Amino acid sequence: MSDDHYLDSYLTEILPALGLDAETYAPYVTGYANNNSDDDGESLDELIELLRESSEIDGEDDAWENFRKEISLRRQDYLAEVDLRKELSVLEIQAATHANLQKEIELSQKNALEIDARKQVQLVNDKPENMSAEKIALIRKFGYEDSDDDAQRGHDDGDTEAPNTNHDQAAALLLQKAQKLKSAPKQTKNDARQETKKMKADKNAKKEARRKKAEKRERQR
């Protein structure tokens, strides 16, 4: 008889007391117990009746009734334990799945935040006012070269379209600003004083003209 079944130790003890050979009749009981379908009691009653007819002794009714109740109770406890293990297994699988999904979500969110942060830093760094002098110098240098090459290609191909890449556009804008700054006249302190003096003179002249015009109207009255 196998030692793997949950009823083995009990049957080894109880069957001989009921006048039955354990090796011969234990498989009948374990076969019934292994049936996980719902039992209304009739199958167990039929089994008990079969065992009782096979017994070598005329046992008391109470002994067989107690045997019946014990088999039924142990079977119910075992099936309840099996169901509980199944439920726990399902819960563990669900918890593991949820944990893995949560990790994937957190990782995706972290990656998205890092990508967005890098983009923001890049946008800030790409602004002319935040560029280093060396970077601006390089962009201006290559901007001039690209402009010369583009002008030559445009002359040869008849194509005068604007630069297509962000790099070319940035270089062109920086070049344009630099050229405007270079071409703008530099105002000295003396020039500023002369301009201020001229503005005051113009203002006084306009004021004097308005005064004379007002006096003329008064005389005409």
From TrEMBL:
Name of protein: Coiled-coil domain-containing protein 43
Signal peptide region: none
Highest taxon of the lineage: Eukaryota
Feature: compositional bias, Basic and acidic residues: 188-207
Compositional bias segments (type: Low complexity): 169-187
InterPro entries: CCDC43 (IPR037666)
UniProt-annotated stretches for the region Disordered: 146-221
Taxonomy of the source species: Eukaryota, Sar, Stramenopiles, Ochrophyta, Bacillariophyta
